[in-house]
């Protein structure tokens, strides 16, 4: 995909994760093994997935900037 090409899909995924995390205690999440980490903030698994996506997106942006700077410093 082009640089940053997955951002729309990623934004949609983050929005969906944020909506789903309020499902804590519903039938789909009972007995997942991580439910003891859930709180009024929502499902522990969904919150962790959201945070990982955010961290990965920040890392990708930083690497893209570094790559662009390296190309500008060392043109072919």
How is the main sheet built? none
Order of helices and strands: HH
Beta content:
under 5%
Instruction: Tell me roughly what share of residues is in helical segments.
Output: 55-70%
Shape: elongated
How confident is the prediction overall: mean pLDDT? 77
- Low-pLDDT parts are 1-5
List keywords for this structure.
disordered N terminus, 76 residues, elongated, mainly alpha
Describe the fold and architecture.
- The chain has one domain.
- 58% of the residues lie in helices and 0% in strands.
- It has 76 residues and is mainly alpha-helical.
- The two termini are 23 Å apart.
- The N terminus is likely disordered.
- It contains two helices and no strands.
- The chain is elongated, with a radius of gyration of 18 Å.
- Keywords: Coiled coil.
Short description:
This protein is mostly helical and 76 residues long. It has helices spanning 7-20, 44-73. Residues 46-73 form a coiled coil.
Blueprint of the fold:
Elements: H1 7-20, H2 44-73
């Amino acid at each position: 995909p082009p640089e940053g090409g997955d951002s729309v899909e990623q934004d949609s995924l983050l929005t969906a994760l944020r909506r789903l995390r309020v499902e804590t205690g519903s039938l789909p999440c009972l007995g997942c093994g991580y439910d003891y980490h859930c709180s009024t903030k929502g499902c522990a698994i969904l919150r962790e997935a959201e945070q990982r996506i955010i961290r990965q997106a920040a890392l990708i942006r930083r690497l893209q900037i570094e790559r662009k700077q390296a190309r500008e410093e060392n043109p072919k």
